[in-house]
Amino acid sequence: MHDGASILVLDDLVKRFGGVAAVGGLTAHVRRGSVHGLIGPNGAGKTTVINLITGLFHPTSGSIRFEGAALEAMAPQDIAARGVTRTYQNVRLFSGMTALEQVMTGCWLRRGVSLWASFLGLPAASAAWRASRDHAMHLLERVGMAHRADELAETLSYGEQRRIEIARALGSDPKLLLLDEPTAGMNAAEADAVGRLVHELRDAGLTILMVEHNMSLVTAFCDSCTVMNFGRLLAEGDPRACIADPAVQEAYFGRKHDADRIQALR
Ligand SMILES: Nc1ncnc2c1ncn2[C@@H]1O[C@H](COP(=O)(O)OP(=O)(O)OP(=O)(O)O)[C@@H](O)[C@H]1O
Fold first, then answer.
1. Are residues 101 and 228 in the same domain?
2. 95 and 137 fall within a common domain
3. Residue 47 alpha carbon to ligand 1 centre in Å
4. Which of 127, 128, 134, 218 is most buried, taking the most CB atoms under 10 A from its CB?
5. Whether the predicted interface score ipTM is above 0.85
6. pTM of the model
């Protein structure tokens, strides 16, 4: 997958924090128009990879190519402007704002009017505000939350808040959406609904890279995956094949004889 089919290519990516190599030479490919899972045990380096792709951290070495452009030295807002956006592991909504207002904050890249025009209430700013409200409403419909548009975010259920976050991330018309544990804390029905939403977004042309711990969701909804362990690549490809890989099983559950010993101690 070294051709134009890959929208994102990570090559020998390294991120050190002092003596800790959170990412220790990761190479990975994400195919355009796919749902790609990024999985691995706790502390494997998955969130650090998302932080590197979005420019929150710069890599110690290695490269990140998005549609052929090098992202590794770019500022987060420039990466966002190229069409890469994300959600966070923990819900990060603004308190005191309605669902619609939350999503409107994500539409800033589309507005195209200066901050001064907004402050001065110029006609162009009012028209841009109406356009971003209409777009935010459309996005709420897309994630099945239009009926909650005027509710304060803090009054919504956890699953609903996650949907609002996804709608907000869609506000900048991304090409690549990075979801960091989008189903954490959800019940099976809510998680399944997120899986279906992710498929709808993919079918509408988006590429999705999703950090996920729920293996049944990964096998049901991811087209491909990258498995990390200790900052490195453990397996890449078809999710079922990756999860069945003995090295991946060992990373998650320990060696078979360790499991047998633990069982014997019980
Ligand atoms: N800012 C930081 N400073 C120092 N160490 C960090 C920092 N961020 C991450 N690490 C370390 O890097 C390693 C990878 O962390 P990371 O959060 O990327 O893993 P993860 O796979 O996302 O884990 P989880 O599934 O538990 O969220 C861990 O050992 C973590 O403690």
1. no
2. yes
3. 7
4. 218
5. yes
6. 0.88
